[in-house]
Amino acid sequence: MTGQGDDSAGAPRGAIVVAQARRTAAGERPGTSATWPPPPRKPGQTRQNVQLTGRHGQTVARPAAGTAARPAAEAPERGGVRPGGYNPALDGVRALAVLAVLVFHMDSLRGGYLGVDVFFVLSGFLITGQLLAEWDRTGAVSLTRFYLRRAYRLLPAFWLLALVGFASVVVLGMGTDGERSEFLDSLASSMLYLNNYFQVARQSTGAGWLGHTWSLSLEEQFYLLWPLLLIALCRRPWFARRLPLVLLGGVAAVLVWRNVLIAFGASGTRAYFALDTRADALLVGCALAAWLRAARGGVDGGGRAALTWRRRLARVRAVLPVVGPVALALLAVAALTAPSGWGPRPTSLSRGGFTVVALLAGVVVLALEQGLTTSWLFRALAARPLAWLGKISYGFYLWHFPVVAHWGDNLTGSLGRWPAILAVAAISVALAAASYYLVERPIQRRRRAASRPDRVSPPDRQPALAAVAVAGTGDRLVGTAVRDAGWDLGQPRPPI
């Protein structure tokens, strides 16, 4: 289980006032993203079809007379294309996934490891949405900022775990010489983000400290390459217009490649841990983000291609109230019945089951992004305890493994299976909360303070602030636009 997006909670209302003040100072009329006054009408051009021109030359259609612009905040309630922003229900999904992994490591949920696949889908969806938003806003993606955000988000909590493990195993001498050697090998591979291939060569728990960091390694390998590939695709109009289909083609290619390797004798371990055989889950999330962006007009500014993608999304949205809960139920069944996925012998999961699980997770994400926020599914997954656990799920994932490894058996013998699971979960929550509030959040705040301009935003951030007003006054969209502009005013979503 690994990285999640850096997406933030919605910005406070004070950010709206700041954005409006800056638009006014820049000569913009509040409520639009175009320069005011508008250009003069040409002969025969009516007021209704005058187009406003944005800062970078893009056109913004003026709504026809008598048509009120619908606030962005209403879109999710009506099942419209969600503009982005913090979605607590996705944090609820993340919480369920990390709990499934914990119960699996306590030998009480045979397919609980599939929670990692859910994390992969969520991560691909969130990160790709941010990259595409930056591309649409600026026509480029800053790789430096992207990799720095990933480092700031992932490294502090991981280094804290590594430091505690090093002090326990090496400095204090806890464990045998063999366990010390195992820990150091796993630490080196984890620090280099190569632990997944280390697991292929020799499965190891890292002396009970680092055996689960393979998923962080796999995901970071993907995100080392993915922004470069995405930029290349977006620069080519044919691929850019068909980006969701191209990414779904990538999902199919990974599935075929995994089966080819198995046909030539690859082990289940190789199919489970390697990037080239597990990237299908990440690509499902990427394809979903590309589809929603295309439906919002991100490909051609709302032209024919966007209309086509929007119509396809509308047909799918009509059945989401049914298929969303069904997909979640099928994931639960898979967690109860799935075979071991990484043994020497490939299983049905290696031959196609992982892809099916990823697609089911994608359906759940789409249902939560496009369905009614008043639905029972959204309300249940967005419940505050689940959403809070989802926010600290990165630390929970990091710390639950050593807690299970060092205390799980003793607690089970003393308390019984399920009381021991509750005790391990409580200890893991306490450690994750301490990591989140004492280490991760303070570092994130210092990073945001260091990158925030003192008074006036630089010119390259002003277009994102101006774009907020075109869609309405919804706090969610304001928070998204300000975050994507680099302000990071809200709390970051924890990595998976």
Would you kindly provide a brief summary of this structure?
This protein is mostly helical and 496 residues long.
Give an overview of the whole structure:
This protein is mainly alpha-helical and 496 residues long. It has one domain (76-451). It is 66% helix and 1% strand. It has a two-stranded antiparallel sheet. Strand 1 and strand 2 form a beta hairpin. The N and C termini lie close together (6 Å). This is Acyltransferase 3. One of its GO terms (molecular function) is acyltransferase activity, transferring groups other than amino-acyl groups. Residues 88-436 form the Acyltransferase domain.
- Low-confidence residue ranges: 7-82, 455-496
Number of domains: 1
Gap between N and C termini: 6 Å
Residue-averaged pLDDT:
80
Structural class: mainly alpha
The tally of helices reads 20
* Gross geometry: globular
What is the gyration radius calculated from CA atoms? 24 Å
Neighbour order of strands in the largest sheet = 1-2
Largest sheet: 2 strands, antiparallel
Percent of sequence in beta strands? under 5%
Element-level helix/strand string:
HEEHHHHHHHHHHHHHHHHHHH
Would you report the number of β strands?
A: 2
Helix content: 55-70%
